[in-house]
Amino acid sequence: MSTVLFMLLLTLGGVGLYLAMPGGRLHVGRAALVVLLGAAGVLVAALMPLAGSHQQALWLALLALVALLGALRVITHPRPVYSALYFLLVIVAVGGMLIQMQATFLAAALLIIYAGAILVTYMFVIMLAQKGGGPASYDQQAREPLVGVAAGFVLLAALTGRVVTAGAAPGTDAAVDSEISNVVAVGVQLLTRYVVGVEITGVLLLAAMVGAIAIARRRAWHESQGGWG
Amino acid sequence: MLAAYLLIGAVLFVLGLIGFVTRRNLIIMFLCTELMFQGIVLNLVAFGRYPLAGTPTLDGQSFALFLLAVAAAEAALALALVVLLYRYRDTLDPNAWTSLKDK
């Protein structure tokens, strides 16, 4: 991809995202959609030649579109519940990409942990912290959307500039050893090479559990003492 | 293939970052950190699957599994704190907790 095309793509994406941000510009929502779809189309068209085979390219384009549009709605939707649901779409798309990369166990773990556990917790908290009568004022108005979007896209240009404008696609495409299944291979590696990491992760999860229980107990104690003092 | 996945991962990460900076709802801000984690997972696995030299390894997938555990711990603690803060001030706007800010 040429530098000019890359810069055009970033500018399109930035303008579209700025227009789509909640607050005051809701009447240009349709224009934002057109601009963003254009940017996504250019991005996918640029991604297609990077893929190895025709089938890989089709899957990549589909999953990338779903992931990017989902991520976009997560950060622009004025209702938190819908943001969480669009995040689920991102999880599914990322899981699909992991399967494309033959990381089947990780894809299953991602779906089970995120969609099954973390997202449900988020939904609980969103429902708990919701007032009746439409979206709250702080969801309607973004904080400094222009500066935030500009800074984000400058960072994106810095992160991906070299990768995108490099002539030949980097990275080898050697076949994965399919003698043993991915689950077995990852499990063996976790319990041999990274066994210390697994133990430390256990300690981390225990600490997080103790911390969460301590925070919850604190609330109960305060309320039994009659309010927040 | 590596460049394509790196690009998608970077876009997901930056979208999460923009969301974290611009949204004014504590829950959505933490959801945006999870979005950034997704970009990182894609990067890790892509570098393991399409290495710059040598044969594919499973190190990226192992790192991503640890990242899932950290994300779960983070979500549990952060959401417990968010519920506690909501009980204090009855709002999710982070501007309600600026008493430590230099006036």
Secondary structure blueprint with pairings:
The complex is a heterodimer of chains A (229) and B (103).
Chain A: H1 3-20, H2 29-47, H3 54-76, H4 80-100, H5 104-128, H6 137-140, H7 145-165, H8 182-192, H9 195-224
Helix pairs in contact in A: 1-2, 1-7, 2-3, 3-4, 4-5
Chain B: H1 2-22, H2 26-49, H3 59-89
Structure description:
The complex is a heterodimer of chains A (229) and B (103). Chain A has 229 residues and is mainly α. Chain A folds into 2 domains: 177 residues, Four Helix Bundle (Hemerythrin (Met), subunit A), CATH 1.20.120; 36 residues. The mean pLDDT of chain A is 82. Chain A has 9 helices and no strands. In chain A, helix 1 runs antiparallel to helix 2 and helix 1 packs antiparallel against helix 7. Helix content of chain A is 75%, strand content 0%. Chain B has 103 residues and is mainly alpha-helical. Chain B has a single domain, classed as Helix Hairpins (Orthogonal Bundle). Chain B is 74% helix and 0% strand. In chain B, helix 1 packs antiparallel against helix 2 and helix 2 packs antiparallel against helix 3. The mean pLDDT of chain B is 89. The interface between A and B is large, with 90 and 74 residues.
